[in-house]
Amino acid sequence: MNRWKIAAAAAAGALALGGVIVTAASADPAQPAHSATAAATSTAAVAQTDNHKAKPTIVLVAGAFEESAGWTGEITQLRRAGYQVVAPAVPLRSIAGDAAYLTTIVRGIKGPVVLVGHSYGGPLITEVAAQDPQQVKALVYTAAFIPKAGESVGQLLGQFPGTLLGPDTTYTVNYPGGASDMYVKPESFRALFAGDRSATDAAVDAATQRPVNSSALGEPAAAGVPAGIPVYAVVASQDKAIPPAAERWEAQRAGATIYTVNSAHDLPTSHPTEVTQIIERAAR
């Protein structure tokens, strides 16, 4: 497995958010960092004007091996805060096909949207945003891949050491015609995916997991993050599926505001309050 050096610069500024470590990384290193006081003042001012504007719809996109029910905590909290929320069932067949399906859903939503992707959902929200950049208010990547055009999930996964995703933790079911579905082995699911949760809860998720077409992981992305859309990224510091160093490097490269949560890979399921706070900040 190749070892790449993290090429992006680190913190341009830092602030606290409910125990979450926040790093403001600007795509333009000449931009000055905002102090915590200024950030808080700005947030309060925006919150006051928010009452006079329609809230964007939040679209939550799950990754491979999981169901949309993994967003239950975020859906509950966002709806309580007055947001409309959509969490589609991703087909998990191909980057292009899944993104086209999601694009159709987003185009059916009236008004702006915030796209939130977990894991494999990261490339999907990137492609959707490239199709409709005017409708997308912000992109939020939660323990997710953030590709550039031409990069695949498999390629990004191999750039840093540390992933447990591989033949020891997964298996495939082959079908006539050459297609194959990849699953996480039940006995490996907690270590790979759900390290913050009980063995019982992890076993339930392993039993209800949705497989991804193996070829999707090697499919090059058609687009990178469109210019002009604010980008937020949440790094799961205990991730055993996507190396945290890879998540941070991709986020820095995308010019994202970066948040770090002490979480395993299933960040939306195990830390919904922290994720919801970041989504609401992106929505404002």
TrEMBL record:
Database matches in Pfam families: Abhydrolase_6 (PF12697)
Keywords: Hydrolase, Signal
A GO MF term: hydrolase activity
Keyword Transcription annotated: no
Domain called AB hydrolase-1: residue spans: 58-275
Keyword Hydrolase: yes
Alphabetized InterPro entries for the sequence: AB_hydrolase_1, AB_hydrolase_fold, Sec-Metab_Biosynth_Hydrolase
Signal sequence segment: 1-27
Name recorded for this polypeptide: Alpha/beta hydrolase
Protein source organism: Amycolatopsis rhabdoformis
